[in-house]
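Table S7 (text form). Paired inputs.
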Amino acid sequence: MFAQRKIEKVFLLFPPVRLPAETMKVVIPPLGVSYIAAMIRNETRVEIMDAPAESDYEEEMENRFSWYGAPLSEIRARIERAKPDIVGLTCIFSSVFPVIRKVCQEIKKIDPSILTIVGGTYPSFMPEYCLSEPSLDFIS
């Protein structure tokens, strides 16, 4: 399914959050991607993007939700510059999965060979649903 290759660059993304209307915006430390970066930094080059902390961009989404954090265009530009072999994303809550889906679809437009991996509580509880998204290669 996937050709074996050396992993030289990993891009870890704490994605924008998808918030219900009138919800207080809170930025939390991206501990999961930080721990992963600390574990692999001696083996490969790693870049982290904390989308909610790096941008206060906000965009309306469906059903009175909003996208809060770096816009998709900025995420795309960072990934294009990084040229990673793998993009790892955090998905703690079900409400964020629509954002994850959009980001993974955009990653595959950049380069279909970039592996997309999503970790967190949501893919742990909903693995079949998450993996039904064609742009998502693995969950952890």
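Next pair, protein 2 of 2.
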Amino acid sequence: MRILIIIQRSNGDVFFSGSLINYLKNFFLNSKIDLLINDDTLQIADLLPGINKILKFSYSKKDAYRWKQEKEIFKKIYRKYDIAINLTASYRSVLYSILASKKSISAIERDVSKSWWKRLFLSSYYYFDSNKHIIENNLKPLDFLGISYETKVLEIPVSGKCLKNVSRKLKNLNVENFLIFHPSAQYNYKIYPQELRNQLLGLLEKTKISIIVTGGVSEIDFNIKGSIPKSEKIINLIGETSIEEYIGLSYLSMGYIGMDTLNMHIAASQNKRLFAIYGPTNLKMWSPWSNISMSCARKDKYINEYDNITVFQAGLPCVACGKAGCNDQHDESLCLNHINPELVYQKVQNFINDQKI
């Protein structure tokens, strides 16, 4: 059985495909599962277990090499698969799934003017529902294959070698008990303002445990790195860990404090204690998923608490608007200015007190 899964969106979308891949692998024994992804999500795709081959689409080459790139992908996938599953409703990704297999399953829009041709050529389709969590959307194709499932987010396994390296680094830093603080995100509109961020770090410095600050190597990350206060209790590792090392670090941590981004979802899949700061993001689709009760935050609240998860939002009537910032152009979200760092700190301190460290 040859299966192609198409995920042409962000790192988070690729991460949340892990459960689907796992169910397919266990149902179709000895199957070969390939992924077709955007090349900027390769790092996380490489860590998903059970993958045979990864095909990449590059948006950076889209204009200069558009038809050459499309032709190469068409040649690699055309009728090469027994099943093609597409997890987004975009024109290109739906077309890929139709070309890849006679049995093509895809998300589509409810708007018939956008999806009429998709309904005609797809073997099976379902509606991408922004009122449901991304894991619930991503597992929907299993219904068409007669595969039963639970809505659990698959935890990405960490190699023993990686855990040893991370443990060694922590020992060298003289760190035993620690929380992760992740202040960055892919876009500015998801980032807690610097003044409030540093107020929160100043409060967290009072706790009995270390705070390890994490981040990647983007321009946004390095701008934040330079603004983090220097302190013995606050250890700035922005730009100093790979994604796999971050997963290992998260695995060894007591919990996560920070923004709604891939790193937060990784911690949630590990059942870590979470303190997540949210701006305009749609909670129904992108709140931290709890594998304990297999649920998420369904309503916008100043504080959402369920299982091991606390989500903070601004108490404003516009929250959550679902836009990419107030101007919908990936700039700042003013709602993040209305989340009190003292409130976040008190919830974290209560958790630490309960640990009796």
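Residues 11 and 112 are 29 Å apart (CA to CA).
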